[in-house]
Write a structure and sequence with these properties.
By secondary structure, the chain is mainly α. It has a domain at about 1-55. The protein has eight helices and no strands.
């Protein structure tokens, strides 16, 4: 349990630093300043300004507008409820699961556990519906599929955001299946106590992977990038 807490905290901090540092480098490049050497002071100042900006009164309205635009575009009509169900269930499961796992010595229990299990059912149904509705949009093209055939290459570079979104979508779906399977298996009285412990551990670590994948997907999909600075004299057309 202690190891899971450490890995969770380090994983969240690592992803947060990576995504914010990428945006910091882009901001530095937009201002025509050198970004070859990491400047901790400049990074922390930029991060503090960004965090303060996220808590402005208009941020909630902008976030809701982005959410509505996304659902109107990809989940029209009554299908929006599937995406809403996935969003609500994921928010509650991640918040309740990780808060209790990190800060409670007993883990998740009582009424929060009951609601957690109920939201798991909503998550399963919503995830299946979203996969049926959006699987075609996230299919890998021939050139993208060839990337996975080059296992001899230790580092993959110059991957487009479209390709990364597709990989994150299918990783999210696969991990969601792991979540559902481990919960259902733990409810069946066919496994030993040791096996139950292994299933719970798999459930926790797959939940962490889902959280990190969702954070990266949201960052590269919904949060706009700072526009690049145009050279002097360049036309707006």
């Amino acid at each position: 349990m202690l190891m899971f807490k450490i890995i969770t905290v380090l994983g969240i901090i690592g992803v947060f630093f990576r995504q914010t540092y990428i945006r910091f480098r882009a901001a530095v490049a937009a201002e025509s300043r050198s970004s070859r050497v990491f400047d901790p002071t400049a990074y922390w100042k930029w991060l503090w300004r960004s965090v303060k900006g996220a808590f402005r009164p208009e941020t909630a309205a902008k976030s809701w507008s982005v959410y509505r635009d996304w659902t109107d575009r990809y989940y029209p009509g009554w299908t929006m409820w599937f995406f809403a169900g996935l969003t609500v269930s994921l928010l509650y499961q991640t918040s309740s699961g990780f808060l209790f796992a990190i800060f409670s010595p007993r883990g998740l229990f009582g009424l929060p556990l009951l609601v957690h299990v109920m939201s798991g059912g909503l998550f399963a149904v919503s995830l299946a519906a979203v996969m049926l509705l959006r699987a075609r949009d996230y299919r890998l093209d021939k050139d993208e599929s060839a990337v996975f055939e080059a296992f001899a290459c230790p580092v993959l570079k110059n991957l487009s955001k479209v390709f990364i979104r597709k990989v994150l979508f299918w990783a999210f779906c696969a991990l969601g299946l792991v979540q559902i399977t481990t919960v259902l298996a733990s409810m069946v009285p066919l496994f030993t106590f040791r096996t139950q412990q292994v299933l719970i551990a798999i459930h926790r670590y797959s939940a962490l992977a889902i959280l990190l994948a969702a954070v990266i997907f949201i960052d590269i999909t919904f949060i706009p990038e700072r526009p690049k600075r145009r050279p002097a004299g360049e036309s707006n057309l």
